[in-house]
Design a protein that fits this description.
InterPro entries (chain B): KdpA
Strand order of the largest sheet of chain B: 1-2
Largest sheet of chain B: 2 strands, antiparallel
Structural class of chain B: mainly alpha
Number of helices of chain B: 20
Membrane topology (chain B): Multi-pass membrane protein
Strand content of chain B: under 5%
Largest interface: A-B, 77 and 69 residues
Helix content of chain A: 40-55%
Distance between the termini of chain B: 23 Å
Radius of gyration of chain A: 34 Å
Oligomer: heterodimer
Strand content of chain A: 15-25%
Pfam families (chain B): KdpA
Number of strands of chain B: 4
Distance between the termini of chain A: 57 Å
Structural class of chain A: alpha+beta
Order of helices and strands of chain B: HHHHHHHHEEHHHHHHHEEHHHHH
Radius of gyration of chain B: 24 Å
Largest sheet of chain A: 7 strands, mixed
Helix content of chain B: 55-70%
Main location (chain B): membrane
Subcellular location (chain B): Cell membrane
Strand order of the largest sheet of chain A: 10-22-21-20-11-18-19
Shape of chain A: elongated
Chain lengths: ~700, ~600
């Protein structure tokens, strides 16, 4: 789809406002939302106080050292604020861009609710519930609504997968129309009943701006773990003061650890990296969804997407192209293929459905039969009752073509029609019908009067590349299930061709709901897409439910995401985005904790070497001085937040490799890497500081 | 480690696993009621017993009722043990005429035995009557182990069950643990120990003639009992020849068996398993260290059976075994070294560091015993940990600080390790792009809250208690060795108490009002601020549906998970205690060798 919005990772236009936001977020009330960073905030305030105290001449430690620590602790808080502000800024920019780009179709709004009244053009996104619009043949219906005047055939294949057009008319069961569908003939006056996607969009914008973004369940659980770690390190650091006092007293040398050094050690040890980036990761996840033109109504849904292990996919539109195409003519005994093609083409001349057109095209391609102008022929449209369409040629045209009553339709309907006129349905034709169904095609039988001419084979075209996607999903541990209204034979053939794991044939909405419940009872998480009102119960039951934006309002309300592109294949991207968000969280937490090892090696010898000179042996980085060692660790701790902002915004790359391989990779990169990386970095910062003569 | 020590450790583990495998299966059968089904006659007796006690055996308890039952049961245990110690002077079976135990010590000892810690501020042969040992201490050895076993089984049920409210019946579980496992096994072990020469009688102290009279000098006393001084003010000494010795007796074997099997560790005598009447031979030593790990190792198999995937249990066992092997290697290496301070005095250090060790066990069996007793929360000792080399002493102390999860206490080891597994899975699960789950159960914020309480409780008690003690004069004055080693002694004491181990760096005189009052609550809260949240986790997990395993599920049975679990345990333990250890054993080590 064309209206994807892409933004550079660090857009210069966003950096300045983000820096401003970072300062605003220094207020303690904003900090309280993030307990770990709040501890850093308190530490910064405390060291600032101690720094001011040094001017009185009786400080906790040398003035320059205390000031340097205080400043860098404030930077740590600011960097975390900046990360969050950056993510929010990006999300907001995307939301604005989306709002501008989305749906540039036009609606003809009527001044009075009747056909023929004055109308004016307005953007469909400006439509509100209650507006009355007129839609003529060839136009797209701008929003969900109810027909109040007129009768028309409507192509709803994008939504229902049913390729034959349906009749929509005022009053009765067939009065509701769906946005995104197309009027094929005549006109309709429609009263709009739903405000298009805006409600979702507004919610989305509020969420990416952070104002209303509630924490997701997993974020809450992770925050609990981070708080627990913070408390453990708090115990370890606070108890270090009495330990140090005792050690100094019993060793008779050195000075007890300073409060500044303790605060520095604490801030280095607590998981500031992940805590500072946590909300940025969440916001970035939502905004990645948005980049894919998917609006999630809650962060919880995005998170659940990562857990999905069964995907229910509608056959039509997802696995196969929306429309079936004629692929072969199978004549009855004694009928030439050309005669069958000729009759089929005549019957389809007025058939505007994609299938109808494909029959005309196939006849032309195979036998060079051109579309002909018929003058007073009577076209019989498809209805749900007869399940046939065709043409009656009686008058003027009969001189040219002969008197003909051609019908094409489902085998059963044509059989009834032929037998009513005293004809017979030949066994070889019945055989062809079954063969076609077995191959996964749809047979249409053509008859002329009481004579059955043969079968047109309509084939579902499986989308290119879909097989590979399903193979990827299988590697991710996700089972794909195809849902179709087709009979079992057809379903099995297409399932095999597309490479899905399972299928549900002859599915009614209640079967879908039952299937979801069964999977859930087995302990699986189910994702599905849906659009029709009759999908709503299944959407409500599924763990991740993506409603097509072209779908009915009921479907959108039942789902927890809306795909603005109405592209059911999107489900796969959604799952990947969910996984990516969780992976980024886990990887950065591991990295954050693994970093502590190096920080201990920097700070512990530095603070105790005065009391126990032997502990200098633990200073494996050979840092230039105790104060430089502590300062280097603090600076590293602050800078790593900035360094990881791009990763937090972009997300750890997800590859469908299977759980064990993925874990091994990430453990190596973020676990082992997290242990090793700080050693050279702290050493470099220390070298820089000592060469500048700072510490 | 040389060939002989590799062989000793290897043989030990081989026998252990061969015994633990069938026991694990039996425990699963026992606690899932299959044993009762197979033996209707036994079930009928048990049924009469439950009716007599007014227990509705068929009723599952919610987690908080289960927790309440255990708390009440253990609180009553504390009162009984306290009362027995205070009243023993008026009670029978007191041949040595022991006086009532002083209140502070009685309080500390009561909590100590009820919480499976068996921290001993007193000396058994100088303070406790036979009745107190049997009815108070030995009974709690059974009940505290049964409590741990019940909690572990309840947690495993939380994983195994799906969408139910209950986690089992506490009274039934306690009964099954005591009667079905602990009593029969300890009877067998006790009989074996008697055969090895462990005493089992009701006699008082017995005078025996020495084979070789011993001469020693002692100050001469005047009529008032004051040392006599000569004109120069020097104390006058006299040489005495001792021809007899007073030996303490008692029902030792029966208590010794459950002391090891229940990972209790409280010795009948002060010298614990270094005493020849508790642990006379290398064979008795082997049986004792086997008994320590037997139930904790078997419970890993039980976990596998109960959740229907034996590999899950093997992974936990694998992680425990690997940590154990590394620690044993370090300890045996450290104790095989000669102490440079002693070699400097011209002593032969070829036998390793033998200070504080029994010659009949040597440095390898002593180090092995020390690692086993601290890996499991047993706390029995056959050598003095205080006299180990700095790193040899660091290993037991750190094993305790890891939370007693390397095999660990009866039940406590498994539930502690499962808490770590939940934590490990939480991060690992995220790293593969799924919200975390373990053994088919989603790990959500409630579980993480309870996990946090568990991992916070002991560091708070250990670091807080040590901090107060090194600042208080009452705390410092008990140290036998000031400086870094004194610090290690105090740190070890609180680590041991809060993690319910019970062993000690004996240099600390802990039978003072200060330490009795500090360590008592540390033991109680170290035990129950873990048990209650663990039961809460069990309750919440049992109520959840069990998720299907797919290719996208984090495998929790392979080598990768074992590495992950070890990494989590070691990293949490290292990050929490590294500063404190740096000021104790690490400084001592650097002092000694650099």
């Amino acid at each position: 789809m064309s209206n994807k919005t892409t933004l550079p990772l660090l857009d210069p236009a966003l950096i300045r406002p983000a820096m401003q936001q970072a300062l605003y977020k220094l207020s303690p009330r904003a900090q309280l939302r993030n307990p770990v960073m709040f501890v850093v905030w308190i530490g910064s305030a405390l060291t600032t106080f101690l720094a001011v105290q040094t001017s009185t001449g009786q400080g906790d430690a040398p003035a320059g050292f205390v000031w340097a620590i205080a400043v860098w602790l404030w930077f740590t808080v600011l960097f975390a604020n900046f990360a969050e502000a950056m993510a929010e800024g990006r999300g907001r920019a995307q939301a604005e861009a989306l709002r501008g780009l989305r749906r540039t179709t036009w609606a003809k709004i009527l001044n009075e609710p009747r056909h023929g009244a004055q109308w004016q053009l307005r953007e469909s996104s400006d439509l509100r519930s209650g507006d009355v619009v007129v839609v003529s043949a060839g136009e797209t219906i701008p929003g969900d609504g109810e027909v109040i005047e007129g009768v028309a055939s409507v192509d709803e294949s994008a939504i229902t997968g049913e390729s034959a057009p349906v009749i929509r008319e005022a009053g009765g069961d067939f009065c509701s129309v769906t946005g995104g569908t197309r009027v094929l003939s005549d006109w309709l006056v429609i009263r709009v009943t739903a405000n298009p996607g805006d409600a979702f969009l507004d919610r989305m914008i509020a969420m990416v701006e952070g104002a209303k973004r509630g924490k997701t369940p997993n974020e809450i659980a992770l925050t609990i773990l981070l708080v627990a770690m913070t408390l453990i390190f708090l115990f370890a650091c606070v108890s270090l003061l009495p330990f140090s006092l005792y050690s100094v007293a019993s060793a008779g040398q050195g000075t007890p650890i300073s409060v500044t050094a303790l605060v520095a050690l604490l801030v280095c040890l607590i998981p500031t990296t992940i805590a500072g980036l946590l909300s940025a990761i969440g916001v970035a996840g939502m905004s990645r969804m948005m980049q894919a033109n998917v609006i999630a109504t809650s962060g919880r849904a995005v998170e659940a997407a990562g857990d999905v292990d069964v995907l229910l996919l509608d056959k039509t539109g997802t696995i196969t192209l929306g429309n079936r195409q004629a692929s072969a003519f199978l004549p009855a005994p004694g009928v030439s293929e050309k005669a069958l093609a000729d009759a089929a083409q005549l019957a389809s001349l007025a058939d505007e459905t994609p299938e109808g057109r494909s029959i005309v095209v196939l006849a032309k391609d195979k036998f060079n039969l051109r579309g002909r102008d018929l003058h007073d022929a009577h076209f019989v449209p498809f209805t749900a009752q007869t399940r046939m369409s065709g043409v009656d040629i009686d008058g003027q045209d009969a001189q040219q073509h002969g008197k003909r009553h051609i019908r094409k339709g489902a085998a059963e309907s044509v059989r009834v029609w032929v037998e009513e006129q005293g004809g017979a349905f030949p066994a070889p034709v019945q055989h062809s019908v079954e063969e076609v169904a077995k191959r996964g095609g749809t047979p249409l039988v053509v008859a002329d009067g009481r004579e059955v001419l043969g079968v047109i084979e309509l084939k579902d075209i499986v989308k290119g590349g879909i097989r590979e996607r399903f193979a990827e999903l299988r590697k991710m541990g996700i089972k794909t299930v195809m849902i179709t209204g087709d009979n079992k034979l057809t379903a099995a053939a297409i399932a095999a061709e597309a490479g899905v794991d399972d299928y549900l044939a002859e599915a009614r909405p209640e079967d879908k709901l039952k299937l979801i419940r069964d999977y859930q009872a087995e302990g699986r998480l189910v994702a599905m897409t849906g659009d029709g009102t009759n999908d709503a119960p299944a959407l409500a039951q599924a763990d991740v439910a993506v409603a097509m934006n072209s779908g009915t309002q009921a479907a959108k309300e039942a789902g927890n995401m809306v795909d603005l592109d109405s592209n059911p294949t999107k489900l796969i991207e959604i799952v990947e985005t969910g996984k990516q968000m969780l992976m980024t969280r886990g990887s950065l937490t591991t990295f954050s904790v693994a970093n502590d090892v190096a920080k201990y090696f920097a700070i512990l010898p530095a603070v105790f070497v005065g009391t126990y000179p032997q502990l200098a042996r633990l200073d494996i980085m050979h840092l230039s001085s105790p104060s430089s060692a502590i300062l280097s660790a603090v600076i590293f701790n602050a800078l790593i937040i900035i360094a990881l902002i791009p990763l937090a915004l972009r997300g750890v790359r997800y590859r469908p490799l299977g759980a064990a391989i993925l874990l091994r990779r990430n453990l190596l990169i973020y676990g082992l890497g997290g242990v090793l990386l700080p050693f050279p970095c702290i050493k470099l910062i220390d070298l820089f500081l000592s060469s500048m003569g700072v510490a | 480690m040389n060939h002989s020590s590799v062989l000793q450790v290897g043989l030990y583990l081989l026998i252990l696993f061969l015994l633990a495998w069938p026991l694990g299966r039996y425990l699963a059968d026992l606690f899932e009621g299959r044993v009762a089904e197979r033996c209707p006659r036994l079930a009928a007796v048990a049924g009469r017993f439950y009716r007599l006690c007014g227990v509705n055996a068929g009723q599952d308890m919610s987690w908080w009722r289960y927790a309440l039952a255990l708390l009440a049961f253990n609180a009553i245990g504390v009162l009984v043990v306290y009362a027995l110690q205070r009243l023993q002077v008026w009670l029978p079976l007191n041949p040595a005429g022991m006086a009532a135990v002083e209140p502070g010590s009685a309080f500390n000892t009561a909590i100590s035995f009820v919480t499976n810690t068996n921290w001993q501020g007193y000396s058994g042969e100088a303070a406790m009557s036979h009745l107190t040992q049997m009815l108070g201490l030995a009974v709690q050895n059974f009940f505290s182990a049964a409590t741990g076993l019940a909690v572990a089984i309840a947690l495993v049920r939380g994983f195994a069950r799906r969408s139910v409210a209950g986690i089992g019946n506490a009274w039934v579980d306690l009964t099954r643990a005591t009667v079905g496992v602990l009593l029969p096994l300890s009877t067998v072990i006790a009989v074996f120990l008697v055969a090895q020469g462990v005493v089992q009688n009701f006699a008082g102290p017995t005078e025996v003639s020495l084979l070789q009279p011993v001469e020693y000098s002692q100050p001469k006393l005047d009529a008032d009992g004051q040392p006599l001084k000569d004109a120069a003010g020097q104390v006058v000494t006299e040489t005495v020849t001792a021809k007899t010795q007073s030996l303490s007796m008692g029902p030792v074997a029966s208590q010794e068996a459950i002391k090891m099997l229940g990972t209790n560790g409280g010795g009948f005598f002060n010298a614990n398993s270094a005493h020849p009447f508790e642990n006379p031979t290398p064979l008795s030593n082997l049986v004792q260290i086997l008994a320590i790990f037997l139930i904790p190792a078997a419970l890993c198999f039980t976990l596998g059976h109960m959740v229907g995937d034996i590999r899950q249990g093997l992974a936990i066992l694998g992680a425990m075994t690997l940590i154990f092997l590394v620690m044993v290697a370090i300890a045996i290496w450290a104790e095989g070294q000669a102490n440079p301070l002693l070699t400097a005095l011209g002593m032969d250090g070829s036998g390793g560091n033998l200070e504080g060790k029994e010659a009949r066990f040597g440095s390898v069996q002593s180090a092995l015993f020390a690692v086993i007793t601290t890996a499991a929360s047993c706390g029995a000792v056959n050598a003095m940990h205080d006299s180990f080399m700095p790193l040899g002493g660091l290993v037991p102390m750190w094993l305790i600080q890891l939370g007693e999860v390397v095999f660990g206490g009866v039940g406590a080891g498994l539930y502690g390790m499962l808490v770590f597994a939940i934590e490990a899975v939480f991060l690992a699960g995220l790293m593969i792009g799924r919200t975390p789950e373990y053994l088919g159960k989603k790990i959500e914020s409630y579980e993480m809250k309870m996990v946090s309480v568990v991992i916070l409780a002991t560091p708070l008690l250990i670091l807080g208690g040590t901090a107060i003690s090194v600042l208080a004069s009452a705390g410092v004055s008990s140290m036998a060795n000031p400086g870094a080693h004194g610090f290690s002694e105090v740190l070890y004491a609180f680590s041991s108490a809060a993690n319910n181990n019970g062993s000690a760096f004996a240099g600390l005189s802990a039978n003072t009002p200060f330490y009795n009052l500090m360590l008592g609550p540390a033991m109680w809260f170290g035990r129950f601020t873990v048990i209650v949240p663990v039961l809460a986790i069990a309750g919440r997990l049992a109520a959840k549906p069990r998720l299907a395993v797919t290719a996208g599920t984090l495998p929790t049975h392979g080598p990768l998970f074992i590495v992950l679990l070890i990494g989590t345990v070691v990293l949490v333990g290292a990050l929490t205690y590294l500063p404190a250890l740096a000021l104790g054993p690490i400084v001592e080590h650097l002092n000694l060798f650099l």
